[in-house]
Amino acid sequence: MKLINKLISRAAALVLAVGIAVSSTAFAAEKDEEFTFPSGLSFNSFEKMVGLLTNTYGAEINSKLPPTSVVVFHGDEILYTNYEGYINMKEDILNDENAVFEWGSISKTMIWVSIMQLWEQGKIDLDADIRTYLPDNFMKNLKYDDPITVTDLMNHQGGWCESTYRLFVRDAADIGSLEDELRKIEPAQTFRPGEVSSYSNWGAALAGFIVQRVSNMDFTDYVHRNILEPLGMEHTAVSADHSDNMWVKEQREKLRSYEMPMMLPIWEETGAELFYCPIYPAGSAVGTIGDLARYAQAFVDDGHPLFEKAETQEKLFSGSSFYGESDIPCCSYGFWSSEYAVQTYGHDGGTNSGVANMLFDRDSKVGLVQLTTNSNYTYNPMLSMLPEYVFGDYTGKNLPVEKAKPVGFRGEYIASRSTIKGIGSFFSFLGAVNTDKLEGYTDIGNDVYKYTYTDDYADKVHILGRSRYSDGTEGIRAGAVEYMPVKMYVPKISLLAAFYLSGISAIFVLLAKRKLKKAKLISQYKGDFIFTWAQLAKAASLLAIVVILVAAMSATGLPKYLGACAGITQMISFVLCGAAAIAGIAFILKRKTSKSRKICYIFSIAGNITTAATIAVFEMYRFWGC
């Protein structure tokens, strides 16, 4: 009862904070109302909890809400199904069992299942170097000669950082073969293989390419024959353009996405948000909630329908990467482990269209799948609240505590899943985390920490691990990503700030010079043209960074030609600013100039050195291999 009251109060707080309308149709199988979920809620209590959410929402602003589909299952039995909202509000098309949604990165789990199937057949060695299965010299941007194993790919420990280049395209006609697309956007390898967890779409798609080469089948065909067809998943497409299932393709074109801007209680349509993923094994699956539930049920089925042997399914969920030096799994051959009252496995996904989630507890055989076009988790209780209703809160009460040990996380850390190298490397510094301001760490031994924090609704507890790297540094493991200490963060971020200031100042100086020259209020020394060109270079360098930032944050990423133009611009700017800095020093040393003009030269030299140094330090010139 205490848990129920806690969940009710949390739901009420969420409803009051958000205030969104819901149009909901829920169906529950005839089930013993005393069935108990891992959370401790009975089936009857669970229905009441969900009803509290939907009924309160329905009484708020209006009757329309973006679509959300939910299925809760126990073994092969569907316990609860809910279809909320509209897939198209303007045309009044209700969400139902025929609605299809993008599964995003849940698609990756089909790669890992395929890998395990081929491992079971003796065709893939999980400990083998992936070069064994790839064309000669396939990877061009490797920093380390160390082998990258198949398991490294499954753990997202191949060493690749994020790329600034395209992950999605608008036109399906722009999609090439999987091999060609992988070659086009190969990111930089910045970490030693097997050492750092850095979630990588490219690395996952590379594993899909290995499946394709080992099986001698197109990856799409392989998945249909070995996953979709055995499970009866007739309403799922996995190819880049969804053409492998025309019914799904047509249904997807009906779907509309919505967002709630600026915390206003109004849903705005953003269109179909239909983008295509050229490295499609990493995130192109589209299907119904029924098919996703059928897929998730296979992983709690003792009949192991996707594998010939039960041992293969057991290995898949035996853990392959752990927090610190403990036996607490973080990743299990591509499936992520999550902390609730029970240990769950699964994967979530996000695209420009929406979000998806798949969770299951293999012990109780209870699972949950969720699909929506609404990318705002905060505004959707059927996304944010249901996992805890089903699986319960993680408290960590069963964990030992070693309070005497200091945590030792101090300073600025950047996420491994960021653009560490190349033209967009400054992104990672903009998102740095200051661990000095984080509290709530408790040492539980074996380089594992319980991290407690409070969000808008309740206390949350997560597991973090300390990672120790071969260069002697240490990082923080947080699920699919690690946070790594930044060397010389303050000088570097100060340099970046000075770069922005220098670029903005250059624009104002150029405008001022133009007006003063027209008014014939200034004279120009012989050789002063180099300073004007340097001002133009600083302004162009700043503009190039703005263009990169805007393009890289778009759904389609930074186009190659734009990256090349920006990189070449930075090279030219580096040369011009360097030349102007040298010329400025020479002018001061060799000329008798007024004090005021000498001060101008000093500021000019400082600005030029700042711009040239920033371009060099942050590799703003490097448009290849990033």
Question: Beta fraction of the residues?
Answer: 15-25%
Our measurement of the CA-to-CA distance between the termini, rounded to an integer number of angstroms, reads 54 Å
**Main β sheet profile:** 9 strands, antiparallel
* Large-scale geometry: globular
pLDDT averaged residue by residue: 86
Which terms would index this structure?
626 residues; alpha+beta; 7-stranded antiparallel beta sheet; disordered N terminus
Reconstruct the topology from this structure.
Elements: H1 2-18, E1 24-28, H2 43-58, E2 68-74, E3 77-84, E4 86-88, E5 93-94, E6 100-102, H3 108-120, H4 150-154, H5 178-184, H6 201-215, H7 219-231, E7 236-237, H8 246-252, E8 257-259, E9 268-271, E10 286-288, H9 289-297, H10 310-316, E11 321-322, E12 329-332, E13 335-339, E14 343-350, E15 355-361, E16 366-372, H11 381-384, H12 386-391, E17 412-415, H13 426-430, E18 433-434, E19 441-445, E20 448-454, E21 459-468, E22 474-478, E23 481-485, H14 489-518, H15 529-552, H16 560-590, H17 595-617
Antiparallel strand pairs: 1-3, 2-3, 2-16, 4-5, 6-10, 7-10, 8-9, 11-12, 12-13, 13-14, 14-15, 15-16, 17-18, 17-23, 19-20, 20-21, 21-22, 22-23
Helix pairs in contact: 1-2, 3-6, 3-7, 14-15, 14-17, 15-16, 15-17, 16-17
